Amino acid sequence: xxxxxxxxxxxxxxxxxxLIPENPQVPVHQASAKDWxxxxxxxYPWGTSGVHxxxxxxxxxxxxxxxxxxxxRLYQGEWRLGGKVVLALGPGWKLHYFxxxxxxxxxxxxxxxxxxxxxxGDSGNAKGKPPHLHYSIVSLMPMPWLIDDAxxxxxxxxxLNPVTYLAPR
Length: 169
Fold this sequence. Notes:
By secondary structure, the protein is α+β, with helices and mostly antiparallel strands. The longest helix has 18 residues. The relative contact order is 0.20.
């Protein structure tokens, strides 16, 4: 009986997380579609990862990087390739990955939309390149209809195109 209630509670939690409304904003302050290349998502070939699983939003070093939706910060720190990074969980069970930051903002676990995460930079494997934010979105709920025959196309069931995600609705 307890297992059944636990399972029902888990299903309700998953369903509720998927219902939280999203009205995302561009994660770089005052950036717009002219600040990234619309075809850079899934660009091939791309370094050791094979394909580019996000977009690079170019801006001046020190420009504010902000939460595109309300989110929960899961990790903040430094990774070898991403440099200074933030990983956060947003509505719809989507992980948002922000990389190559110049600085990180220590402002808690819950981040309302528009909260400062850090600033644009060139950390990690972007050192010496024009400052930008690498922005990726990973769905924890697979979307198999997005799979195609592109290199690593099966991973598109999880990696979402930020260009489409940020498009006006």
